[in-house]
Amino acid sequence: MRGLYLFLALFSYSLFAADINDPFEDINRSIFNLNESVDKNFLKPVAKVYSKTPKPIKKGVTNFFNNLQEIETSINQVLQGKPKRAFNDISRFIINSTIGVGGFVDVASKLGIQSHDEDFSQTLALWGVPSGPYIMLPALGPSSLRDTLSKPFSSFLSITFHMTETDVNLSLKAIDALETRERLLEVESLIYGDRYNFVKDSYVQFMEYEVKDGIGVEDEFLDDMDDFLIDQ
After folding, report:
1. 4 conformational bin, left if phi > 0, alpha if psi -120 to 50, beta if neither
2. I want to staple 134 with a disulfide (CB 3.0 to 4.6 A). Which of 22, 49, 51, 193 is the partner?
3. Residue pLDDT, tens place only, 37-59
4. Residues 151-180 pLDDT 10s
5. How far is CA 138 from the centre of its chain?
6. Please, what is the Cα angle at 161 between 176 and 97, to 5 degrees?
7. Separation in Å, CA 67 to CA 25, 182, 186
8. Alpha carbon distance 67, 89 (integer Å)
9. What is the pLDDT of residue 20?
C-alpha cells in the first residue's frame, strides 16, 4: 500500500543523488517543499491524533485497505505472467472479504497465504518500459514518468474508483492517506541529510525492489522494517 512516503521505511542504504535522472530538480524541489508544508501543518498533526486510536482498530483499518489492493495486484500478476500468484492474491481477497469481515481481519495470512504488492508501473517495468525522469507530484509525492503514466490504469483497477457515492469514495481515500501517514510517524528519524535527496534515493530503490520482487536485494534493515510495518 503505497502512499505518501511509505518507501522511506524500507531502506537503510542510499544511492548517490547524482546517479538519478532528475532533470526537473528545481521544479521538483518546489513541489517537495509545498508537500512538506502541507504535511507539517495538516497531515502530521492529524496523524498524531489518529495514532492514539486503539491498536486493534488501526490494524483493522490497515487490513481493510490492504485487502482493497488485492484486486489490482491480482490483475497485474496476470499481466506479468504470474498466474499462480494471481490465484493466490485473488484467494486472499475472497477469504478476507468474507471470513475476514470485509477485510478488517487478515485471515488469509493466518492461513499461510502470502501477500504481494503489484501495480501497473511494475508491470510496465517488466515489459521493458524505462522509468524515465524523476518527478515530484503535488500531494502524491515521489514518482517517475512511468509511474505517473500508470496511475490512471491503477486507479481504474481500484475498487474505490467504481464507487458511485462520491462522499464515500473521498472519505475512503482520505482515511487511506491518514492511515499511511500515521504508520510513518515512528520511522521519520530515518531521514537524514538533504530530505529531498533522501526521499528521491529511497523512492528509486523502493521501485527497484518492487520490480525485482525483492530478488537479489538483501538487507537486514529491510526485513526488520517489513516486520514493523506489518505489525502496525
Report:
1. left
2. 22
3. 999 999 999 999 999 999 999 99
4. 998 888 876 655 655 665 667 778 878 888
5. 16
6. 65
7. 36, 18, 24
8. 9
9. 80
Biggest CA pair distance of the chain: 50
> What mean pLDDT do residues 86-92 have?
97
Burial class (CB within 10 angstroms; exposed 0-12, middle 13-18, buried 19+) of 135: buried
- 231, amino acid identity: D
**DSSP state at residue 39:** I
Residue 36 grid cell: 512538506
Global confidence as pTM: 0.77
CA atoms within 13 A on the CB side of 161: 11
pLDDT score at 178:
85
What per-residue string of b and e applies to 27-49 under the rule 16 or more CB within 10 Å gives b?
Answer: ebbebbeebeeebeeebbeebee
Q: How far apart are CA 96 and CA 27, in angstroms?
A: 42
First-last CA distance in the chain: 13
Amino acid at 186: E
Q: Which residues contact 27 (CB under 8 A, 6 or more apart)?
A: 136
